Amino acid sequence: MIPELIWxxxxxxxxxxxxxxxxxxxxxxxxxxxxxxALLMVLGVVVPKWAMTALTAEKDNWRTAFExxxxxxxxxxxxxxxAEERGDVATEQGKTMTRLLQELGHQSHVSGSV
Length: 114
Description:
- By secondary structure, the chain is mainly alpha-helical.
- It has helices at residues 2-13, 21-29, 33-43, 49-103.
- It is 76% helix and 0% strand.
């Protein structure tokens, strides 16, 4: 995005021909260290301390939210595994009870649709 911005600014300076990026960079460099510093800020190489502090805080907030979400999903996975085990146990108990009742001579009645 930044190189495109420089290209656009150079093209705006010289509308008659192709863009002169060297001329644009030279306009920054002619002011010495201040020009180089301004160029580095435009390119995003140098950022103010307040911006870096804000970015670091935002990164930490996102990391904390990610860790909390991952922990919540782990709890959900554990609960689903327990529920699946309970469902398997209930199914086996039902099958065992059905076999036991059939061995005792009880006839199963399947209810049809009404």
